[in-house]
Structures
1.
Amino acid sequence: MPVLEVDNITKLYGESVAVDTLSFTIDQGETYGLLGPNGAGKTTAISMIVGVLDRDAGQVRVGGRPHSPADRRSKALIGYVPQDLALYHDISARENLRFFTKLYGMSRAAAAREIERVLEAVGLADRADDAVRTYSGGMARRLNIAIGLLHRPKLLILDEPTVGVDPQSRNAILASVRELAGEGVAILYTTHYMEEAERLCDRIGILDGGRLRAEGTRRELVGLVGEHDQVVFKVEGDPAHAVPVLEAAPGVGRVQRVEGEDGEVVAFVADARAAMTELMAAVAAGGVAVRSVEVREPDLEAVFLHLTGRALRD
Ligand SMILES: Nc1ncnc2c1ncn2[C@@H]1O[C@H](COP(=O)(O)OP(=O)(O)OP(=O)(O)O)[C@@H](O)[C@H]1O
């Protein structure tokens, strides 16, 4: 049973549809990325899922039960880390966390244990007693994530957690997300960074104009484009000789000489990994001396362009 089931949620602002019949599910230990440009509807979708924003239509189930903010049982399963920070800047990270454990009504012993655990999880243990005002933006964001983890949620929802953070904090955030997923937490992660979605997420939903244009693993999404893997050969001598040899090789769709690149020839294949052994054998049999081989796969940028006709980064 999925930890999160989102079923046709919709939000209207006047005439405009911010989120349009959005559906997806997330399993235990799975990281699901909602990828879309600014204004795609990511924050609106998340706010409806968490329950801080009313839905105009649709259902959300968490842990198999219909979720509403009034339902304490399903609420206890969710850890929500919004874009806005909710921290006290004049006290330390540890004191901020202690405040939230009191809010959750945790016992002293449980609070002490959970505070250490979440500080470790986000890599802030060594700065835990410093005032938050001395933190970088990225460290403050990590503390915000720590707060979302205090009650051991089964579903962690992160709204663009790496926007405007330093590279060190960004890496720490990505590492903590991976570790939490490894412990079985289901993760909903929104981002407009293609590389993050590719690196982190098991499955990705591409959101644009409030609608889910496509979803799947990176490989499935890339397959939608119909664009092929590129196997780039650097060859000795005249590359023209390599062209007919590659064209005749099994699994090769099209062969192209790269403009300006001395001795570079590209073979387009459906699946480079599957085709590689036969391709190399054909090249050797054809007497082509290869200096190097590189595989380039189409990326999510190409997928977004294919689906929407626009670039992901405007
Ligand atoms: N309170 C509101 N009233 C009217 N329109 C809104 C409101 N909040 C959001 N919108 C509109 O809904 C659409 C989706 O916005 P949303 O903030 O969910 O996008 P997003 O993908 O999270 O983008 P961002 O990364 O910029 O936050 C946008 O067109 C936005 O202008």
2.
Amino acid sequence: MIVFDQVQKSYQVGGEAVPALHPTSMTIETGEVFGIVGHSGAGKSTLVRLINRLEPSTGGRILIDDEDITHYSHAELRAFRRKVGMIFQHFNLLSSKTVADNIAFPMKLAGIYSATQIRERVDELLARVSLVDQANKYPSQLSGGQKQRVGIARALACRPTILLCDEATSALDPQTTQSVLKLLGDINRELGLTIVLITHEMDVVRRVCDRVAVMDAGRVVEMGPVSDVFLHPQHPTTRDFVFESESVDRDELQEDYQKAEGRILRLTFKGESTYQPLLGSVARESGVDFSILSGRIDHIKDTPYGQLTLSLVGGDLGLAMQAFEKADVHVEVVR
Ligand SMILES: Nc1ncnc2c1ncn2[C@@H]1O[C@H](COP(=O)(O)OP(=O)(O)OP(=O)(O)O)[C@@H](O)[C@H]1O
């Protein structure tokens, strides 16, 4: 478990302390995939770099598995850093070393593993990230997705319990992003690793994270399970991220709303209710006529969800809303 207790960070700029993270308290549970989403400069990297002490905090305490890491000595820090792996947007591989040697590098650096242990671990990791046949290639001979797989294998070399991912898929195309996110999800499930993942894309959060913190100007402005934050965003910054991820043009949407008659409702279906043929029966029972203004069905991690915006005319609207709510469908009145 990672606990932030009133943690803050300021950078010295021109002799002045400029805050990058205002006092923040939060808990990241062991074994979860925790997303941190925010625009450029929001403080995401700063927050994550405090977890492995790449940056020292300037106030508060960070407890990892009940140990305060903020006062670790150099020796304690060296041992601690083996427990925290990290992957980066631009992979940060050593270009003069082969794939196998890149993966072996942190183990060699640690100086506590035998040559046999290192060889066996590298073989195991090459298989884990499906790169056995690329072991002797150099980074320049690999695709972006393969490079990030090497980055992941290298980060796992010393068997960390926490994996930090700093915009790990931002340099990858959508298909490669999907396969890297799947790999991270598998690693989380199979190894029970805690993953903290920074991104500026809500879609990445939706696919792989259990909980998410939304950051804006050095503060966490919203935090919770991804399904709550994604389906019912409260803060304007979160709403912007959700709209962006759905590729919704808000002006176009408003125009559509203006053309539509009657009441406009936004329905959110989650889990099993996503597949129920509810609209027809509600329309029959309540006598309400409806037209669909927009809709989508997708997944939040493994849970299906659907969102429909309807305009409803005539009939008994109250009865229709009751029927939706009885079927566990969240109803938001747009107009
Ligand atoms: N080493 C530094 N010295 C001075 N200011 C810094 C330093 N690192 C970050 N900052 C400032 O702290 C703030 C937060 O930066 P940070 O990199 O944590 O944001 P971010 O959300 O990760 O942004 P990005 O997505 O662009 O990486 C920014 O205003 C940035 O300019």
3.
Amino acid sequence: MSESTEFTFKQIAEHNTKKDLYLIVHDKVYDCTSFVDEHPGGEEVLLDVGGQDSTEAFEDVGHSDEAREILDGLLVGTVKRVPGDPEPQSKAAPASSSSSSSSSTAGFGVGLYAVILIGGAIAYGAYNYLQAQQQQQ
Ligand code: HEM
């Protein structure tokens, strides 16, 4: 079997046992049967997502390059979507993480400006208030 083999969600879902375990990561299909006993994160987590799209579960852990190399070796095909199938999970692949991290930095920058502006406005208001109080005395 090769990457050109296509599996529908229905076909993949049938491989959901410890003795026959397929996972989907980034729309590729991996046969994890031989790896399930060796997984450093335990067999339970793999069985939980057996036969399903586990892209988010896989990416959430922040797996190492070594883990991704193992994954490459388990590749058996790609997902063939038919109408009604779940959408691809959106977690970015590590290759695009530089752009997503820069956009999150930009988000932080905007947030920081907002904090400074609001903080400044409050300080200005407080200063005016105190001035007015002093003039009344
Ligand atoms: C076939 C797909 C997978 C492969 C090849 C794989 C491989 C690995 C490898 C090599 C590690 C050791 C740490 C590292 O190198 O990053 C690891 C750790 C881990 N994996 Fe996976 N993994 C897969 C899928 C999953 C999935 C779907 C989950 C779901 C939550 C998961 C959860 C974990 C956890 C929690 C650890 C950390 C274990 C620890 O540090 O105690 N893995 N995995």
4.
Amino acid sequence: MESLPNPPVPQKIGADSNGSAANSNRLFDLRSSLSSVKLPVRNGAEVKLRLGKKMGSEARLCPKIEYGDGGYVLEDVPHLTDYLPDLPTYPNPLQDNTAYSVVKQYFVNLDDTVAQKIVVHKNSPRETHFRRAGPRQKVYFESDEVHACIVTCGGLCPGLNTVIREIVCGLSDMYGVTKILGIEGGYRGFYARNTISLTTKSVNDIHKRGGTILGTSRGGHDTIKIVDSIQDRGINQVYIIGGDGTQKGASAIFEEIQRRGLKVAIAGIPKTIDNDIAVIDKSFGFDTAVEEAQRAINAAHVEADSVENGIGVVKLMGRYSGFIAMYATLASRDVDCCLIPESPFYLEGKGGLLEFIEKRLKENGHMVIVVAEGAGQDLLVKSMQSMDHEDASGNKLLLDVGLWLSQKIKDHFSSNKKKMSINLKYIDPTYMIRAVPSNASDNVYCTLLAHSAIHGAMAGYTGFTIGPVNGRHAYIPFCRVTETCKKVVITDRMWARLLSSTNQPSFLSHEHIEDANKEDEPSTESLPNDHDVRISDGSI
Ligand SMILES: Nc1ncnc2c1ncn2[C@@H]1O[C@H](COP(=O)(O)OP(=O)(O)OP(=O)(O)O)[C@@H](O)[C@H]1O
Ligand SMILES: O=P(O)(O)OC[C@H]1O[C@](O)(CO)[C@@H](O)[C@@H]1O
Ligand SMILES: [Mg+2]
């Protein structure tokens, strides 16, 4: 084993209250200015810990990095044995399970990893990989030892109940676990609310309902109180379902659990209707939301088409990312213009939105506009008094772009200069779209997420988020899904497809395009460092 590096050395976090190094020397609180720290050799490969991007004033624990041949990089997730090296293992009970034992190679090979980038050139380095999700031959928990809990945090999303159901049923059916607690009302439920016992019977039908049977909340993340509660209740597997904020909270819980040297696996299941979680292909509930949005767009189209100069405006969710609006528009084919946060637009003058509306009305007699809630916020702030309010989790509260835009359009066409009579209907289905139960494909997806999370926790992995990367489920370090937010890349082909389907102006000047291209570079060339990985919209 290599010795630890000399100063500047990151502060060790494995020390217990007496200052002794209770934990392994592999894990550090990365508050140093080093970009990476060489660590002891593991599986014959050099292991490195690297600094995450700063989030506020906090530095986050970063992945264990392993390097292999041909530029291969594994961004590994923590394992309980990183700080509890002598944990015993047990044979995976799945090998005696009649349903699974027939599957050839059911267990995942320990060395299997999933490539983050699959479009490569002949001489491209292999680059970033994540540990493949799935059941392992050896587990680190005996079935009757497991005491699991599930919590849901942040906004609602179709499929929450399905994930809860499948964690309960998966733990029970696959691993014979019976002690499963539901934490009510989000993070604060750990210390301020009741818990409910979850059984396969009590969750049997819940996937048919929208929302979350556990309740949810924003704010109220008190790491110490939460970990005290986990410790006091003897919980040893924590399944945390939520968006970017929730995963940051899960990361803080993981760090504290590790600091206390507890045998507790922390598994994150990414949730966000906005589909803005980095690295993973898609978040659950997104397909359902896009499907549900069709009903609102259809209504807007019917209304607009039935009157002279009819305009239907539909506002959809998407705080920082316009995925719902983009996919709902592409799916519908009735939309004339889609406005998203990533693509700035302007109203007045040549090439502006109002000019386009007039043109489209003259051509077709009606039009439909889909606007994501985070679009045009810069314009709103200029023309309205900015409120600068935040929700309990610290997310900025947005001004209502749908109402604002509708009013601007009405004002424009009723002005003395224009005097064109229009008939505008504004539809705001935002909460209807996320309060519905998940559709069939999301249900299957939720099941896979739940199973992957369970297999990971049983196998002793911790501090991970689960999700599909290029179609294969992988264990992803928390910092990789929290350091950046996935956005629509407006210079990618998917946005070009949208522009060509709606025939709307791009509202982009030549300089905008140049800037966007610069930001997105390089696309398929080798990436300069792991934090600059370009977040794509899955274009083909
Ligand atoms: N940086 C952070 N550290 C610890 N906890 C956090 C952090 N950010 C958010 N949280 C906690 O995570 C929970 C959910 O956060 P938030 O309300 O931002 O929703 P989210 O998980 O991002 O989901 P979504 O935005 O998709 O609705 C809250 O209880 C909040 O206190
Ligand atoms: O009204 P709430 O519950 O705070 O949620 C609204 C936000 O939640 C999201 O749906 C993300 O979960 C955003 O699109 C939206 O801005
Ligand atoms: Mg969020």
